[in-house]
Write a structure and sequence with these properties.
Elements (H helix, E strand, L loop, with lengths): L7 E2 L1 E2 L9 E2 L10 H14 L59 H17 L3 E4 L8 H14 L8 E5 L16 E5 L5 H6 L2 E5 L8
Parallel strand pairs: 2-4, 4-7, 5-6, 5-7
Antiparallel strand pairs: 1-3
Helix pairs in contact: 1-2
Length: 212
């Protein structure tokens, strides 16, 4: 469901000079759907675990199955084979079976969750647009730009930042990869989870916006 007011994103230059706000495309003028974003996050986190952990049961460990000592007359508890889970070197009870039960999110829901995440970070001032963000030629230039923007936006120097570049600019992503607390990703493959949990977002102006 669309809202009455268009969603706007703050615009900055590479030198952290604030420009005129940019109106985001109408598809981002949505009411918040926390349930959908939560579902997308859960699926992302589930898929980050392969579920391949496997342990051996008492019947699978390589150990003699001979009764440890006689049943009666020892004054101790009764025990059978030393492959039991209570002994060191024995099997594991109720451990992981190496069965991957991966959750899936339908393509339409995945796209909708991404739109929701973009709407959320801009409406809550957790993201800004930057002109020519991908137009850098060396790491020092990229580091200086990120530092100036952090200072302008009153972020801590140790704050994490996610730099989102368009497909045409992504070849310059290498200049951001060695900057501390900075992660860079292409807009074409960014997920709702990345936008919500990777820190403050610096997004290249031209990836989806149009000027008012």
């Amino acid at each position: 469901m669309k809202t009455n007011n268009p969603l706007r994103g703050k615009l900055y230059t590479q030198k952290a000079v604030q420009g005129k706000d940019v109106v985001l495309p109408g598809e981002f003028d949505l009411k918040e759907n926390k349930s959908l974003m939560s579902q997308a996050v859960r699926v992302y986190e589930d898929r980050s675990h392969t579920g391949e952990a496997l342990v051996k049961t008492r019947g699978e460990v390589v150990r003699t199955k001979k009764k440890w000592y006689k049943q009666k007359g020892t004054g101790g508890a009764r025990h059978a084979a030393r492959s039991a889970p209570i002994f060191v070197g024995g099997g594991v009870a109720h451990g992981p079976k190496g069965i991957s039960k991966t959750l899936h999110l339908p393509k339409k829901m995945k796209s909708a969750a991404l739109v929701q995440a973009i709407s959320y970070i801009f409406s809550n001032e957790k993201a800004v647009l930057v002109t020519d963000l991908g137009n850098v030629s060396k790491t020092s230039q990229a580091a200086k730009m990120v530092g100036q923007l952090k200072n302008k936006l009153e972020l801590k120097s140790t704050s994490k930042v996610l730099v989102v570049l368009g497909k045409d600019s992504y070849e310059n992503s290498r200049f951001f990869k060695n900057i501390e607390n900075v992660e860079v990703i292409c807009f074409d493959v960014v997920s709702a989870y990345k936008l919500l949990f990777s820190g403050f977002v610096l997004m290249e102006e031209g990836v989806f916006t149009k000027k008012s």
